[in-house]
Structure formats: C-alpha cells, structure tokens
Amino acid sequence: MTHTHIAGSIHADVAQAGPQWLELPADLNALDPKLWPSGTHRDEAGAVVVGGASLVDVAREYGTAAYVIDEADFRARAAAFRESFKGWEIYYAGKALLTRTVARWVAEEGLSLDVTTMGEMKVALAGGMPAARLGFHGNNKSVEEIRFALEQGVGRIIVDSFDEIDRIEALCRELGVRARAMVRVTTGVEAHTHEYIATAHEDQKFGLSISSGQALTGLVRCHTSDVIDLLGIHSHIGSQIFETAGFEVAIRRTLKLAHQFRTATGAELPELDLGGGFGIAYVSADAPMPTPDLAAAFEELIDHECLALGLERPRLSIEPGRAICGPAGVAIYEVGTVKVVEVENNKARVYVSVDGGMSDNIRPALYAAEYSCVIANRNSDAAPVLCRVVGKHCEGGDILIRYVFLPRDIAPGDLIAVPASGAYARAMASNYNQVPRPPLLGVRDGEVTTMLRRETLEDLMRLDVGE
Length: 467
Ligand SMILES: Cc1ncc(COP(=O)(O)O)c(C=O)c1O
Ligand SMILES: N[C@@H](CCCC[NH3+])C(=O)O
What we know:
Blueprint: E1 4-6, E2 9-11, E3 41-42, E4 48-50, E5 53-54, H1 55-62, E6 66-70, H2 71-84, E7 89-93, H3 100-108, E8 112-115, H4 118-126, E9 134-136, H5 143-152, E10 156-159, H6 162-175, E11 179-186, E12 208-209, H7 214-224, E13 228-234, H8 245-265, E14 271-273, H9 291-309, E15 315-318, H10 322-325, E16 329-342, E17 348-354, H11 363-367, E18 374-375, E19 384-390, E20 399-407, E21 415-418, E22 440-444, E23 447-452, H12 457-463
Parallel strand pairs: 6-22, 7-8, 7-15, 8-9, 9-10, 10-11, 11-12, 11-13, 13-14, 14-15, 17-19
Antiparallel strand pairs: 1-2, 3-4, 4-5, 6-16, 16-17, 16-21, 18-21, 19-20, 22-23
Helix pairs in contact: 2-9, 3-4, 5-6, 7-8, 8-9
This protein binds pyridoxal-5'-phosphate and lysine.
C-alpha cells in the first residue's frame, strides 16, 4: 500500500477510529456555534470571519501563528455573568488572558479583576482597572508584591498561608495601612477535571485546609489581627469543570466553616467567594452549563444552607476566567506539511504540521486538553480524514489536536483556525525553541487592532546579554 499525499489529496488507508466522543461532522465546513465566537461565519469565498474580520486577511496582514479575540463576544460573556449573578461581584480571572485592553473591557463591563502577580497588577492598573476592584491571589506572594498591593490599596488580598499573614501584618505596620483579606480554604472537594487543574483536594499547594482545622485558625488569626479587616472565605475548586456537584460540596463546607467561625468568635463573615472554574466547550461533545442555570443553582443552594445554619446571606463573588475569554478567542495557523505515517494494521495516520504549537498553546501537552479546528481559508467538498495537528517544536508530544476530521484535500498553505483558544493559550505561551510569541489581535465590527504585537527575534536577542 502506498501512503502518500499527492497533489493535494491524501491517498491512503487512513486510521479512522478516533475516541468515542469524536463526532464525524456532517459538514466539515460548518462552524459549530457552541465553539466559535458568536456571529462567526464564512464569507462567499469560504474564509472564516470572526468579529467581522476575515481570518485570511488577518493572516495576510499579521502573519501566522496569530490569536484573535472577538471583543463583542468577550463583553457579552462578561455581561452574561454580571446579569445572571445579580448582586454578586464578578472578578474576571486575569491569569486566563490579560492585556491592558482586556483590563479596560473588564472595567467597562463593571467587573472586578483577579490578579496573581506584580505583573498582572501592573497590567490591570495600566488598563484603568481601579486598585479597589482588584483581588490579589497567590500561594507565594513576595514582600514586594504585598507592599505594592497595600500601597495601591487593592480591594482584597486572598491569604494563602500563615507565613503570608505574618508578612501582611508586618507590612501594614511598616506602611501604616490596613489590609482587607479573604482566607483561601481547601474544601477537600475532588473536582472532576484534570489532576493538574483541580485545586481543592487536600494534597496540593493552595489554601488552608478545613478538615485539619487550619482554615478556622487562619480566619481567627485574621479576625483578631489589629491591622487586618477580615472579609470572609475564599474557595476555588479547580478549572474546566462541567458539573455543579463539586461547587455544591464547596458551598456546604464553606458555609459550615462560616458557622464554626461565628460559634468561635461571635462574628459573622460578610463575604464568600466561590472562585472560578466554569467549563467551556472545546469540542462539539462538550456540554457546559449555561451561565443563568449555574447562577440559579448556586443561589438556591446558598439560600438553603444559610437558612439551615441560621447565617446571614454573605456578599457573594466568583472569579470566572476561561468562561469569559476562552470562547472569544481563535488561533490561526498555516499548514506547512502534510505527512501520511504508517501506524498499525497497515493503516496510516495523517500528521498536519502548523507554524506554532506547544510554545503558544501548552494545554494539550500539559493537560491532554482536546481542541478542534477547521480549514479557515476555503470551503472543501473533499471527504473527511482523521488527522493529528502538530506543532513545529522538537518534541513528539507537541500535539495541538490529537484527533480531528479535516477534508482529505488539506494541503500546505491552507490556514487552520482553532476555536475556544482565548484562555490559557497565549497567556501561557513560552519561547521554547526560540520561537517568538504570536500576536493577540482584537477584532470588532471588522476592525483589527493589535493588543499584543508579535514578538520578534530582536526581542529575544535583546535578553541574551552573554558573551
Ligand atoms: C483562584 C482562582 N480563581 C479563578 C480562577 C479562574 O479559573 P477559570 O479560568 O477556570 O474560571 C483560577 C484558575 O483556575 C484560580 O486559581
Ligand atoms: N491553566 C489551566 C487552568 C488553571 C488556571 C489557573 N488556576 C488551563 O489551561 O486549563
């Protein structure tokens, strides 16, 4: 048998069995609305259009690999949280994607912002987000970071350890200021997600554990501190979660802890933050919960538990990141090679190489995350073939999309677009293999603006100051 790719069409007996969840799309040109920014469509020539901008034009002008983010879609998702979780404070989790422009959109949509480092604080402030609307996270905040946060007057510091409480108290005394604090607790919830992004089981680095008693001790320490104003409890159980069960356990356990705190001190805790983690669709088989349904489920349980425990309903907040920026982003790559590789039982696998990979999206390599993609520059009537989309890096694990059906005539020079790429892709990008990081382009009503310009080799060489 010959396994070849001749004149733009794959002639081989190709392995067609993907995982169970992988559906064979009825139309390979179709754009599943669940995966793409709202309004994404193809123009008459077949080019994918996001936020009114043709990805063919974007690629021509800005090159590939590139990330686009649809401003209207981002804002609509932020607004959906604001409107569904009425009266709650919504902290957009900046770690998912943060630039000055993103911080401005978040501020304009009336959301607050969760930041984790000096860098994120600086970008947020530069984007016009008031310090009072920042929540400062992190399990190992440096003295410089805490000092800066206190000097700027950040809205709240989410305390993660006893060492940090010592540091905050010392800095408050030195600066003559008070700190507003939440205590991050470990609820012991085993969230249904990848091990590396579950954060509430006992054996991990974040928070003070409820079951060991450390959480209550931390709360009482902050409450009795002469320089800390204790706001309440913070819980974040993990990321890319579809089921509400884990959140429900976290709500029960944090409110029970608030009750224990009242018994111990006689004081009510005014706030409760339930963190982020709301899953999005990366492939058509994913079924995230609509934001209003999520809000209704949370509201009902919190009211029920507060009533049962005789607690005042606290002020509530959440920290969605991925659910706001993830579906608004699309990655664009150009296909460089199409290789048909013999695998087993005389079958072949089609490897489609693109001009990016694990340096701009580490998620598949790090969490075995699944994605999908389409040819973005044209329609095709060719039959489907199961492909593996890989990057250009020197790693066998540099796989962007492990299984996806693409048209058999996929060929070098085609563009592919990967939906649901707004969160934790460009934000986690590296320079592995000395590859400059791709640009982040805002699209709105057909206008394209550069939010992060493409990194250049000169940028990289500037850091290399050795002889
Ligand atoms: C404390 C905290 N809040 C919020 C988030 C945002 O999570 P997501 O992007 O899954 O909503 C994270 C990341 O998982 C986090 O660590
Ligand atoms: N970076 C992770 C999520 C963890 C985020 C922050 N706590 C992801 O890409 O899924």
